[in-house]
């Protein structure tokens, strides 16, 4: 998994914040803590997708075959 954010925001919780039932910080968790251990997490930004080559290109210069 590639994401430019290492935090996950639980968007449906926004409604609870609106009605003062949750605080914003309760909706934010580390992405890694939500993933199965077998999933490799790359904190990086996707800058291009090459469908012909089957590659995803990222800001840190990584090229991953998909
Ligand atoms: C008030 C509210 C209530 C909701 N209720 C429900 C509900 O009841 N049921 C339901 O199914 N859905 C609900 N939703 C919608 C649900 O929260 C969203 O559909 C869901 O979060 C979208 O998930 P996503 O992974 O597609 O996108 P996101 O959660 O937006 O994640 C996209 C990720 O991609 C990353 N990213 C973007 N561009 C790049 C890039 N170039 N390189 C690397 N990373 C990138 C972003 O940083 C982000 O982390 C609700 C939303 C709101 C606001």
Description:
This protein is mainly beta and 66 residues long. It has one domain. Helix content is 8%, strand content 33%. The protein contains one helix and seven strands. The chain has one helix at residues 14-18, and strands spanning 2-3, 7-9, 28-30, 42-43, 46-50, 55-58, 63-65. Strands 5-6-7 form a three-stranded antiparallel beta sheet, with no helix packed on it. Strands 1-4 form a two-stranded parallel ribbon. A hairpin with a 4-residue loop joins strand 5 (46-50) and strand 6. The longest helix has 5 residues, at 14-18. It is elongated and about 50 Å long. The chain starts with a strand and ends with a strand. Bound molecules: flavin-adenine dinucleotide. Flavin-adenine dinucleotide binds next to strand 1 and helix 1.
Provide tags for this entry.
66 residues; mainly beta; binds flavin-adenine dinucleotide
Number of domains: 1
Rg, rounded, reads: 16 Å
Label the structural class.
Answer: mainly beta
Main beta sheet strand tally, sense and closure = 3 strands, antiparallel
What fraction of the residues are assigned to beta strands by DSSP?
A: 25-35%
Assembly level: single chain
Count of DSSP strands = 7
Shape annotation: elongated
What spatial order of strands do you see in the largest sheet? 5-6-7
Order of helices and strands: EEHEEEEE
Stretches with pLDDT under 50, minimum 5 residues: none
For the record, give the distance between the C-alpha atoms at the N and C termini, rounded to a whole number.
Answer: 11 Å
What is the mean pLDDT? 93
Number of helices: 1
| Fraction of helical residues | under 10%
Bound molecules: flavin-adenine dinucleotide
């Amino acid at each position: 998994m590639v994401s430019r954010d290492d935090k996950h925001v639980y968007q449906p919780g926004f409604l609870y914040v609106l009605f003062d039932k949750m605080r914003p910080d309760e909706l934010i968790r580390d992405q890694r803590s939500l993933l199965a251990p077998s999933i490799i997490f790359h904190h990086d930004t996707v800058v291009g997708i090459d469908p012909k080559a089957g590659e995803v290109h990222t800001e840190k210069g990584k090229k991953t075959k998909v």
